[in-house]
Design goal:
The chain has 18 helices and 11 strands. By secondary structure, the chain is an alpha+beta fold. Strands 1, 2, 3, 4 and 6 form a 5-stranded antiparallel sheet that branches. It has a 4-stranded mixed sheet with strand order 5-10-9-7. A two-stranded antiparallel sheet has the order 8-11. The longest helix has 77 residues. This is AarF/ABC1/UbiB kinase family protein.
């Protein structure tokens, strides 16, 4: 039954609608700042939602497992109450019966598995949403891991994508999630990523690329593959001992310092995300193993993205600008990376970036007043909403990888200073840039030193030139804050009015359709015609409310 497409679509959409209603009802009953008692109730609601999602994901499997996997790695933004329920979701995926997995294996090899393997475990050592991993031995005694794709997974994934598309549409129309995520872009990313992950031959190519890239890195290891035995639905690779990076008891047992491991992991993996070339786009805890010696093992290269040479240079400029607090350079890099359109207000964007960095540098985020945090975040969000900012499709993959990776780092060390840890990488970039300049000028060390001095002199000069404008902006800040608060409150009120009208119209429409359906089923003409009339009037109500809401949004722009 769970492989039936209509059943899967209905079940996933109905579950999501239930979650939306529970969250909206809670927010309606508890508006404004949350007290400790309200916060406890909110966390309890999240646990219940996460528990129900987890049960449904384990029953249906497929794409729901991948979504839970992603959420469990977002320690930087997802509430801890949700993560506690979702963390072990991937480890509890039910295994496929050995007979079915064996049939896939022998179909791909076109021969009995004994022609390749001396022996193989009939129970998987790891079971995930796309494939399962078995412990096996080749005839020469080599210990290997055999990854076999789940039977029928392609059909299941296609049905789940249809359901997720409907859920994204509902969330975009009726919830506040649309203010925090580009749901259409997220959906496009998922279809692109999962499509590649279903082809194990592509994963083989990716794994061999990273093995060559990290061949001389003592801190990070990539398992070797056996290409002769790899197909579209089967992978054979080197067997690796180790535990997941978030198995903190394992780390303590082997005396592995979590802070040191976080720094080592950052330095080993971050260069993928800032230099040109391919990067691991799914660095969640299950794909990062730690061996007893503390060595990091990176596995599962089904999801991989690419950074172009020019974009890598602009990303380096962006990070360098943040570390050196050269916010003009940050804005320049964002423009070249296509995040900003030409008519963006550079001064206003530079101000909020400076505000965010200064707050990060000076405040103890663990003890700061939540109202202050919310105040600053709202200021930043307000500026971003008004500015012509876009998310280029090339960077959806990269943004997801960064957020997942940062979540893993903060799980290891909640106090990690990413800016400080990143300074050696920036220093390497600067030294390389200096070396390139030196080589192009016939190896003149004096010329290189002079250029570096000039560069820092110009940096200091730019900061001094900015000082009068920054002082003026600081004096104007209270007045602008008052005006902004009034505008924000008025717009928030109007937005809630329009959104409430659409919600009520939508649920009335659903009630009319349900009544008409019951009338048809029980041959009750009153329910049939009454429900039909209610649905028709509700559809008109919803359309008029949506049009007015859209016109109001356009006027704001």
């Amino acid at each position: 039954m769970k492989q039936n497409s209509l059943y899967r679509i209905f079940t996933i959409v109905w579950m999501a609608v239930g979650f939306f209603i529970r969250v909206m009802w809670f927010q309606k009953r508890h508006p404004g700042r949350m007290s400790p008692e309200t916060t406890a109730k909110w966390e309890d609601l999240l646990r219940k939602i996460a528990a129900k999602y987890k049960r449904k994901a384990l029953h249906l499997q497929g794409l729901l497992i991948k979504l839970g996997q992603f959420l469990s790695a977002r320690a930087d933004v997802v509430p801890q109450a949700f993560i506690e329920e979702m963390t072990d979701l991937v480890d509890q995926v039910p295994a496929v019966p050995w007979e079915e997995a064996c049939a896939v294996l022998q179909s791909e090899w076109g021969a009995p598995y004994g022609s390749v393997l001396h022996k193989i475990s009939e129970r998987p050592v790891a079971s995930a949403s796309i494939g399962e991993v078995y412990h096996a031995y080749l005839h020469d005694g080599t210990e290997v891991a055999v990854k076999i794709q789940r039977p029928g997974i392609e059909k299941i994934i296609r049905a789940d994508f249809r359901a997720i598309k409907i859920v994204c549409w509902l969330a975009d129309k009726f919830t506040k999630i649309r203010n925090q995520a580009d749901l259409p872009a997220l959906y496009r990313e998922m279809t692109y990523v999962i499509g590649d992950e279903l082809n194990f031959k592509q994963e083989l190519k990716n794994g061999e690329y990273f093995a060559a890239r990290y061949e001389n890195n003592p801190d990070l290891y990539i398992p070797k593959y056996h290409p002769a035995h790899c197909t579209r639905r089967v992978l054979v690779m080197e067997w690796m001992e180790g535990a997941r990076v978030n198995d903190y008891n394992y780390l303590a047992t082997h005396n592995i310092d979590r802070k040191d491991l976080a720094v080592k992991l950052f330095r080993a993996v971050a260069e993928q995300l800032f230099f040109e070339g391919k990067f691991h786009a799914d660095p969640h805890p299950g794909n990062i193993l730690i061996q007893p010696s503390g060595r990091i093992v990176l596995i599962d290269f089904g999801m991989v993205g690419t950074i172009k040479k020019d974009d890598a240079k602009h990303i380096q400029d962006l990070v360098e600008g943040l570390v050196l607090k050269d916010y003009g350079k940050v804005i320049d890099a964002l423009e070249r990376l296509r995040f900003l359109l030409p008519h963006a207000d550079r001064h206003e964007l530079e101000r909020v970036i400076q505000l965010a960095v200064r707050f990060y540098d000076e405040e103890d985020l663990a003890n700061v007043d939540h109202a202050t945090v919310q105040h600053i975040l709202e200021d930043i969000q307000s500026v971003i909403r008004k500015q012509p900012i876009q998310l280029p499709s090339d960077f959806i993959f990269l943004g997801r990888a960064l957020s997942t990776f940062i979540g893993v780092l903060y799980g290891l060390d909640p106090q990690i200073e990413l800016v400080e840890v990143g300074k050696p990488i920036v220093t390497e970039w600067m030294s390389k840039n200096g070396k390139n300049a030196e080589d192009s000028q016939a190896g003149s060390q004096a010329s290189t030193t002079l250029k570096l001095v000039q560069k820092y002199a110009l940096d200091i000069g730019r900061q001094l030139l900015k000082l009068p404008r920054q002082l003026s902006e600081a004096l104007e800040e209270p007045r602008r804050r008052t005006e902004w608060e009034k505008t924000k409150q008025r717009n928030q009120f109007l937005h809630e009015v329009y959104a409430s009208r659409k919600r009520y119209a939508f649920f009335t429409l659903l009630a009319g359709i349900a009544a008409a359906g019951l009338g048809y089923f029980f041959s009750d003409p009153y329910l049939l015609w009454g429900g039909g009339a209610l649905a028709f009037l509700s559809a008109i109500w919803y359309r008029n409310s949506a049009v007015k809401h859209m016109r109001w949004i356009e006027d704001l722009r």
